């Protein structure tokens, strides 16, 4: 794949304070872009970060044919940029594409685009452990038509930006018992824009009441636990770690996958199954609810300090033994502090040949 590279003439890097990089505030200098037409991807290019010209009638705007992924690139102790299990993100991106009737992106094209772009933006990768270069692959439909059919044309792009950890302090959650995010058979496990738009009202209402996020419960009875905001949920009850099984309404979290693999390797009992809020209440009342935390690319781990369901407020222990272990394992792998015995890290060659205009 020949990627044509046009470098920026005015880097934004000089304006960045790497000691103060709130999540999602800054974008780096360049973006990878390619287009889909006539059944194939082409016009591979890296250009300065910029906006798109989008037809007002495009199917991305009219029918929300758009998907995305979230990844992180970090710097190893040897100065080589790394991606953590990018195959999982690529696979999930293509599952989202399939669900939204969009074309798949071949893994070799996807991975090469990631490597060339991150190599070009190497100076944007924060050095502090826990910080990273956030990577956002995105695809949207470009065909102009009001016909309720899949688009014939698409644009795929990847942009990046430096970030510090998200949700650095424990969070307070409240269960949502009226609004819903997703149901089995819907689009809940696809990372598509409409899922996030549909979640905003419940989140805003919770914040108005003093909570950080909500716990989604599955309709129609609002008893089965799904997610916390846009994070996968974990509960430590007794000596077991519980997380909801994937039903089509729960996102197939890549960080969730990392955690399950690590827990099993360390012989910690894991249960992946349906979890009901009544079970969580009972565990809290009996003193067996030792921890609850969310997992996701942005935060890695989000400690949960409180959960409220109806009139019951559950204040959780502050000894985050399991979640701290998991976060330390992931951050240590990404920084190179912990040896990559699992071969999860994919190094990025910095001297990749680039055709610059």
Give the SSE layout.
Layout: E1 4-5, E2 30-37, E3 40-48, H1 59-63, E4 66-68, E5 71-75, E6 81-84, H2 86-99, H3 107-120, E7 132-141, E8 154-163, E9 171-176, H4 193-208, E10 213-217, E11 225-228, E12 231-237, E13 240-244, H5 254-265, E14 269-273, H6 277-285, E15 289-296, E16 300-309, E17 312-315, H7 321-335, E18 345-347, E19 355-356
Parallel strand pairs: 1-3, 1-19, 9-10, 9-16, 13-14
Antiparallel strand pairs: 2-3, 2-8, 4-7, 5-6, 5-7, 6-18, 7-8, 10-11, 11-12, 12-13, 12-15, 15-16, 16-17
Provide a descriptive summary of the structure in words.
The chain is α+β, with helices and mostly antiparallel strands and 357 residues long. Helices cover 24% and strands 31% of the residues. The chain is built from 7 helices and 19 strands. The strands form 2 sheets. Strands 1, 2, 3, 4, 5, 6, 7, 8, 18 and 19 form a 10-stranded mixed sheet that branches. Strands 9-10-11-12-15-16 form a 6-stranded mixed beta barrel, surrounded by 4 helices. A hairpin with a 5-residue loop joins strand 5 (71-75) and strand 6.
């Amino acid at each position: 794949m020949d990627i044509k590279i046009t470098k920026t003439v005015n880097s934004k890097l000089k304006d960045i304070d790497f000691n103060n990089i709130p999540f999602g505030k800054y974008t780096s200098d360049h973006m990878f872009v390619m287009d889909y037409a006539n059944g194939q991807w082409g016009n591979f290019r890296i250009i300065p970060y910029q906006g798109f010209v989008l037809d007002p009638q495009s199917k991305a705007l009219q029918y929300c044919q758009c998907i995305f992924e979230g990844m992180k690139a970090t710097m190893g102790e040897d100065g080589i940029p790394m991606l953590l299990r990018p195959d999982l993100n690529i696979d999930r991106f293509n599952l989202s594409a399939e669900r939204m009737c969009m074309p798949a992106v071949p893994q070799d094209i996807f991975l090469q685009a990631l490597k060339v772009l991150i190599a070009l933006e190497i100076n944007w990768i924060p050095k502090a452990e826990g910080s990273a270069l956030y990577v956002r692959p995105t695809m949207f439909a470009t065909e102009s038509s009001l016909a309720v059919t899949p688009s014939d044309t698409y644009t795929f792009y990847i942009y990046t930006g430096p970030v510090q950890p998200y949700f650095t302090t424990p969070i307070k959650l409240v269960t949502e018992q009226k609004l819903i995010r997703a149901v089995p058979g819907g689009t809940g496990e696809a990372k598509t824009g409409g899922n996030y738009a549909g979640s905003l009202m419940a989140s805003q209402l919770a914040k108005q009441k003093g909570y950080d996020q909500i716990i989604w419960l599955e309709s129609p009875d609002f008893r089965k636990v799904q997610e916390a905001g846009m994070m996968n949920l974990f509960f430590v009850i007794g000596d077991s770690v519980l997380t909801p099984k994937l039903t089509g309404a729960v996102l197939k979290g890549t960080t969730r996958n990392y955690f399950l693999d690590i827990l099993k390797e360390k012989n910690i009992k894991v249960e992946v199954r349906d979890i009901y809020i009544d079970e969580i209440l009972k565990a809290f009342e009996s003193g067996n609810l030792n921890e609850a935390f969310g997992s996701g690319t942005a935060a890695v781990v989000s400690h949960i300090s409180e959960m409220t369901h109806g009139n019951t407020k559950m204040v959780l222990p502050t000894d985050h033994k399991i979640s701290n272990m998991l976060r330390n394992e992931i951050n240590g792998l990404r920084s190179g502090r912990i040896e990559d015995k699992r071969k999860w890290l994919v190094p990025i060659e910095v001297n990749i040949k680039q055709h610059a205009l």
